[in-house]
């Protein structure tokens, strides 16, 4: 049998020699101790050549900078400070200066500044927030249901034993992919109970209105106990029931900042308020309690290849002009007590990017957003933003993917994924186009809309979009149901479990689309008689559509 030779490098020999020397020295010392005589001196060999480590990448969120932090020195207007390998306290934010290098800028809790023409390249901007923000209360509900997996017959209802909670604590509930399979599933019910386990109400983490009334907090609050209810519907012609995997349900309790922050809106707050002409390039923002930076009434601010880690929200704007995010990686997940990463969006309606009232010409290009309740939201009230373009961004959110509610809104080439708690993949409530994108909501624990458009939606174009959701797309107005809109849905693919398309306003054109039913999910309150439902029983020959 041939023997394959093994090549031994000089470094290998040096290491082996050092190891043998150490072992000889240890044995010599042992023998000497037993014999009561001095040990032989160890043989000294040349040290192996040093190993040159590759510097940490710009996206590494665990960069450690040694040494005491210094106060940021005065920098002359137009000057540059290289902070490579150093630590500075950001006691003030100078105007018209450049800071470069992979060093650390420490942001105090109380800092408030409004810099102009501040350019930061390569730095790590660090706050004081603790990374652990939640603890695991339940990693499964198998004990409360006496089973890991339950298959229900049509019409069957199962309710868990009560889970005792602390009414003074805030809880986040997550449901992982794989929670429900099969047909006839109804949305999960989270039943609020008193200390005796008696049901006193229902908790709905998708309820944006209720969250807004609590300062945008969607956490479970003021609850002494919780029961979880799973149910099967009786959809006509569907005989099989759903299967629920109770090991996919997680309950977390808030700690540290998530437990102590007031319930008033805080996402508008920041320790650094930017004005105009600021540039952040290859910068890592980490451990900031509030939004890392907020643009207020400033023009031409640029965030290029910035990374956000372990912050409770991303960036926000207000009355700004021409803000650009390009190739940014924004992840607002936090740590639990087991070291797992948990979306902070389970507790409150936070955003990776929040585009404020009266903004103009903001642009979000490529990059990724993760861990927020609402990945990107442009507010439509009190003077909506204008001409917001979202192009090529990848999104993984809890409840909402994109709300591009700007006038002349453009969303294209985006990829949106929401888990079982996902509510709306994308919404565009004003004049908008949504093109060449994918929305993936393959299973639902509650309600599930791929596209949900409401309010004015006067002129809308949806083209070449692939959607997987309970309802593929819905155009709905609660008040103005008579005004004719100009809404066109063309060349799209809908994989659905409830309906491909639905609307209750005139002026909707549906051409060249494909609808494919992948199952039967019973969404609550979705079958409204005023809605025109297009599904397998819809108008198969109208406009070249194919509903199967």
Give a verbal description of the structure.
By secondary structure, the protein is mainly β. Among the domains are: 10-47, no CATH class; 70-129 and 272-413, 3 Solenoid (Pectate Lyase C-like); 134-254, Jelly Rolls (Sandwich). 7% of the residues lie in helices and 37% in strands. It has 4 helices and 48 strands.
Instruction: Tell me the name of the CATH class of the domain at 70-129 and 272-413.
Output: Mainly Beta
Distance between the termini: 63 Å
**Low-confidence spans:** 1-14, 29-56, 527-533, 535-541
Fourth-level CATH superfamily of the domain at 70-129 and 272-413 = Single-stranded right-handed beta-helix, Pectin lyase-like
Rg estimate, integer Å: 28 Å
The CATH architecture of the domain at 70-129 and 272-413 can be named as: 3 Solenoid
SSE topology:
Elements: H1 10-35, E1 70-71, E2 80-82, E3 87-89, E4 98-100, E5 104-106, E6 119-121, E7 124-126, E8 134-138, H2 142-145, E9 149-151, E10 157-159, E11 163-164, E12 171-175, E13 180-181, E14 189-193, E15 199-203, H3 208-213, E16 225-231, E17 243-245, E18 249-254, H4 256-260, E19 273-274, E20 279-281, E21 284-286, E22 294-296, E23 302-304, E24 307-309, E25 315-318, E26 324-326, E27 329-331, E28 333-335, E29 341-343, E30 351-355, E31 363-365, E32 368-370, E33 374-378, E34 389-391, E35 394-397, E36 400-404, E37 409-412, E38 415-418, E39 424-427, E40 432-440, E41 449-454, E42 459-476, E43 486-490, E44 493-503, E45 508-511, E46 514-517, E47 532-534, E48 546-547
């Amino acid at each position: 049998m041939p023997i394959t030779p093994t090549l031994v490098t000089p470094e290998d020999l040096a290491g082996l020699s050092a190891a043998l020397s150490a072992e000889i020295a240890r044995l010599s010392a042992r023998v000497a101790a037993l014999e009561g005589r001095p040990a032989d001196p160890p043989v000294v060999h040349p040290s192996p050549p040093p190993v040159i480590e590759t510097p940490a990448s710009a996206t590494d969120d665990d960069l450690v900078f040694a040494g005491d932090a210094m106060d940021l020195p005065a920098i002359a207007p137009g000057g540059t400070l290289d902070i490579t390998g150093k630590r500075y306290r950001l006691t003030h934010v100078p105007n018209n200066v450049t800071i470069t290098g992979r060093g650390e800028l420490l942001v105090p809790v109380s800092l408030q500044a409004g810099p102009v023409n501040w350019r930061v390249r390569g730095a790590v901007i660090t706050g004081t927030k603790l990374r652990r923000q939640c603890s695991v209360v339940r990693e499964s509900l198998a004990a409360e249901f006496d089973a890991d997996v339950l298959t229900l017959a049509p019409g069957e209802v199962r309710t868990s034993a009560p889970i005792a909670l602390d009414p003074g604590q805030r809880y986040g509930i997550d449901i992982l992919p794989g929670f429900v399979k099969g047909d006839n599933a109804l949305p999960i019910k989270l039943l609020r109970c008193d200390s005796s386990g008696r049901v006193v109400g229902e908790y709905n983490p998708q309820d944006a209105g209720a969250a807004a009334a609590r300062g945008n907090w969607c956490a479970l609050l003021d609850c002494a106990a919780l029961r979880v209810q799973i149910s099967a519907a009786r959809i006509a012609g569907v005989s099989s029931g759903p299967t629920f995997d109770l090991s996919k349900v997680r309950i977390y309790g808030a700690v540290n900042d998530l437990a102590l922050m007031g319930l008033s809106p805080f996402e508008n707050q920041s320790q650094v308020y930017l004005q105009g002409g600021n540039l952040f390039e290859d910068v890592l923002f980490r451990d900031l309690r509030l939004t890392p930076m907020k643009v207020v009434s400033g023009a031409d601010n640029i965030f290029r290849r910035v990374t956000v880690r372990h912050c409770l929200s991303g960036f926000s704007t207000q009355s700004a002009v021409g803000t650009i995010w390009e190739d940014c990686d924004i992840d607002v997940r936090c740590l639990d007590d087991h070291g797992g990463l948990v979306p902070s969006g389970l507790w409150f309606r936070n955003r990776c990017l929040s585009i404020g009232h009266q903004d103009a010409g903001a642009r979000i290009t490529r990059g990724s957003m993760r861990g927020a309740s609402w990945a990107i939201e442009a507010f439509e009230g009190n003077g909506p933003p204008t001409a917001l373009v979202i192009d090529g961004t990848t999104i993984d959110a809890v409840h909402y993917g994109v709300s591009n509610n700007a006038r002349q809104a453009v969303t294209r080439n985006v990829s949106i994924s929401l888990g079982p708690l996902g509510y709306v993949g994308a919404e565009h409530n004003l004049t908008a186009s949504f093109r060449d994108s994918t929305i993936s909501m393959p299973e639902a624990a509650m309600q599930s809309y791929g596209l949900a458009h409401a309010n004015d939606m006067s002129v809308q174009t949806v083209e070449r979009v692939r959607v997987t959701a309970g309802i593929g797309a819905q155009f709905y107005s609660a008040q103005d149901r008579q005004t004719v809109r100009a809404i066109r849905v063309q060349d799209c693919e809908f994989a659905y479990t409830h309906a491909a398309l639905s609307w209750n306003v005139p002026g909707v054109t549906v051409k060249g689309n494909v609808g494919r039913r992948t199952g039967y999910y019973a969404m609550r309150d979705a079958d409204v008689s005023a809605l025109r439902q297009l599904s397998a029983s819809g108008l198969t020959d109208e406009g070249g559509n194919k509903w199967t």
